[in-house]
Amino acid sequence: MRETSAHWWSDALNDPWRDPTTSAVLTPPRVAPAPMPEPPPGPDRGRSWLPAVLVGVVSALVAGMLGGALGVRFGGAAQQEQSPIGSGLHASAPAPDSLAAVVQMVLPSVVTIRITVDGGTALGSGFIVSPEGHVITNDHVVSGGSGKATVIFEDGDTAQAELVGTDPESDVAVLKILQHPGLTVARLGNSDTVVAGDQVVAIGSPLALPGTVTAGIVSAVDRPIATGSVRGETRYYAAIQTDAAVNHGNSGGPLVDVAGQVIGINAVIKSMADDEHSAGNIGLAFAIPINHAQRVASEIIATGRAKRTVIGAELEEVSRGSISGVRLRDVISSGPAAAAGLRQGDLVISFNHRPLSEPNDLIALVRKTAPGEVVSVTYKRGSTSHDVDVTLVADAD
User: Fold this and answer.
1) Which domain holds residue 325?
2) Closest Cα partner for 267 from 221, 310, 218, 204?
3) Transmembrane region positions (predicted)?
């Protein structure tokens, strides 16, 4: 329903200032005739013609305003009738920079994963990372299964897959699709360039709803998260935090940037619920950075297991005093920390310029870093601060 305008010019036919029998006509302005010679003024002439002039000027102004208003009112209505809204002319494809285009690019590479576990069927998400059919997902999606899984594609087609290997501590697992031609491989981005405020899209199968797309922003990077697993291991994430809606079933699915590149694996959510089965989205979700996951997955494919990055020190569970940092309980001789000059009792304040407040912070950041990479460490010995470079290594186990 269209609301009637309340402006004074909205109903010109009932305007009390207008003769209803006279139609409005637009004409060119008249050319004023040449002025007649002015007779000599009489004693009261100035006062006799001035009111007439003022009345003429005011009348001209009112007539001009009324004519302009009527032109806008009825001329605009005629123009709208020629170009009505909803004419049926739509773009043939989404704009290249739209989220719809991003989703169309990524969705064919995302799969739903069903795996039989004790007591029922586990459901999660994953994405294809090689033409050979390798799929990255979370370890906790396939944990407790038989090593066989069913993957469901965007178009509803299904295929069988087998488990290649897992790394419980980093929560990364790799499946391989056995037979399915024409696979779409996801494009992997660079999670080291991700910053807070970047726009992102999460794709997966939350609550068994395949192909679900949610959007948000990166809330933080390198957020240290430690969670337990059913097998007793502790999983460490130096995670990408996002407010995109993530729920049960999103695990293992991609977190994607606006270029359509995977920058993380959706893995963990925080919730106000008392148990994980009733937990739901409250805008606090965490993804494993793709650089970390890609390295782990490549090692699993090549050797069946992943290398664990270490700094060569044992950490105290609680730091002494009120100063933030992580205290070294022991330093392994000939390890990376010892080689850099760190000693037992030193208080590590930052790792690659990231401040530390508890041991899990340091462990998560070390695990995220590739073996052989040189990192900057700031520590305190007594009241003196020191900056050193530490070359991390892979665990010998």
Assistant:
1) 309-394
2) 204
3) 49-72
Q: What is the mean pLDDT of the chain?
A: 81
> Which residues touch 148 (CB under 8 Å, ≥6 apart)?
115, 116, 160, 161, 162, 163
Could you read off the pLDDT of 224-282 as tens digits, one per residue? 998 887 677 789 999 999 999 999 999 999 999 999 999 999 999 987 666 666 677 88
Neighbours of 29 (CB within 10 A): 5
C-alpha to C-alpha distance for 33 and 308, rounded to whole angstroms: 100
For residue 377, give both structure tokens.
């460490």
Q: Residues 251, 257, 292, 346: which is the catalytic one?
A: 251
Look up residue 265 and give its two tokens: 């694996």
Q: Which of 167, 171, 222, 346 is catalytic?
A: 171
The answer to whether residue 171 is catalytic is: yes
Place of tokens 């890609």: 294
* Cα distance between residue 141 and residue 121, in whole Å: 10
pLDDT for residue 163 is more than 90? yes
CA 351 – CA 382 distance, rounded (Å): 19
Q: How many domains does the chain have?
A: 3
Region of 296 on the Ramachandran plot (φ > 0 left; ψ -120 to 50 alpha; else beta): alpha
Check whether residue 254 and residue 315 sit in a common domain. no
The answer to whether the beta carbons of residues 234 and 362 sit under 8 Å apart is no
What's the rounded Cα separation, in Å, for the pair 368 and 6? 65
Query: Closest Cα partner for 7 from 63, 83, 73, 51?
Result: 73
The answer to whether residue 140 is catalytic is yes
Catalytic pick among 109, 125, 140, 143: 140
Among residues 331, 320, 325, 310, the alpha carbon closest in space to that of 395 is found at: 310
Answer yes or no: do 299 and 191 share one domain: yes
Place of tokens 């409250």: 282
pLDDT at 84 over 70: no
Coil, helix or strand at residue 297:
helix
Which of the listed residues 154, 177, 200 is the one where a domain comes to its end? 177
What span, in angstroms and rounded, lies between the C-alpha atoms of 92 and 109? 23
User: DSSP labels for 45-106?
Assistant: HHHHHHHHHHHHHHHHHHHHHHHHHHHHHHHHHHHHHHS-S--S---SS--TTSHHHHHHHH
Contacting residues for 104 by C-beta, under 8 A, at least 6 apart: 94
Say whether both 117 and 192 belong to one domain: no
